Amino acid sequence: MALRASAAYTGPVKKRSRLVVVSDVDGCLRDSATGSCGNAREAVDRLERAGVPLVLCSSKTRAELERLRGDLGVDAPFVVENGGAVFVPAGTFPFAPQGSVRRGQYDVVEIGRPHVQVLGRLLATAAKVGVDITTFSDMSVQRVSAECGLSLADARLAKLREYDEPFRLVDPDPEARAKLCRALRSAGLRCASGGQYDHVTLATDKGVATALLPRFYKRAWGEVTFAGLGDNENDVELLAAVDLPVVVRSTDPGPAAFLLARIRKARVTAASGPAGWSEGIRALLDGLTGRPAAADAPVLTSSGSGPDDTGTPG
Which helix (H) or strand (E) segment is 56 a member of? Predict the structure, then answer.
């Protein structure tokens, strides 16, 4: 059952509620292959005009997200390294968020454990089960640049890990990866697939961090509705933590199918990447304001509607 934007989203949003959007970055707001935001910048501008905060929630480091936020002109809080910490620009709220510490221009709520602890436990666990891995910490800036398609400057920012560690198996083998992931969970680490690399954190994930945000916004604003956009397996906790989950399609149907199978109330975009992200934002904003759906209004598909739920790009 295809739903127009206004029909899909006016129901769950209370009349006096304000909207907050939490979004993954690569594969959603930004094209994973090219790094371009494409026409998503127009949707970002529309969020700003509507007074809707855009909270970036990514596996990226603080340094990477600071650069992206500057490029986009976004000034809302942001979540780094798969829920490692929430960085709240000082003055965002008329209070210091509970549990935060002031670090320079931010009130920081740390949720995950320090990177040195995460890396140490990852290496010890991999050695214990006999699985050879390559970590970001092992790799030079030049190698990160080459493998990830980043400039040297961006590769340096990507290596400034504070809370999580990206890694991959030296010899890709699904059985070995499954064995390692089970061992990591037993060791208290959370392992999430981020595409080319897996990421491990200790005591946190994107959902844990996202679930903290309503406390701050509700205290400042009152009634708040949270929407979330994600495209990959490591976004499942993020989407589970929001009121209005939106799955952004990718060229690979697998991740969307994975997310829709687990987040039954999610909607999925017809387009993929930044175009799909823009489609989801338009649908959320048009639904919240009650605008009538025009002939070219974005159509988001319910996750319970049959063949379209496979995540095949549309």
Answer: strand 54-57
The verdict on pTM exceeding 0.85 is yes
CA distance 126 to 138: 14
User: 75 an active-site residue?
Assistant: no
Q: What tens digit of pLDDT does each residue of 202-256 get?
A: 999 999 999 999 999 999 999 999 999 999 999 999 999 999 999 999 999 999 9
Say how many residues make up the chain: 314
Summarised one tens digit per residue, pLDDT across range 28-58 is 999 988 999 988 999 999 999 999 999 999 9
Choose among 297, 287, 214, 229: nearest CA to 263: 229
Choose among 158, 157, 231, 164: nearest CA to 191.
164
- The architecture CATH gives domain 2-112+205-310: 3-Layer(aba) Sandwich (3.40)
Residue 6, both tokens: 């206004």
User: CATH code for 115-202?
Assistant: 3.30.980.20
Residue 183 to residue 187: CA distance in whole angstroms: 6
Report domain extents, the chain: 2-112+205-310, 115-202
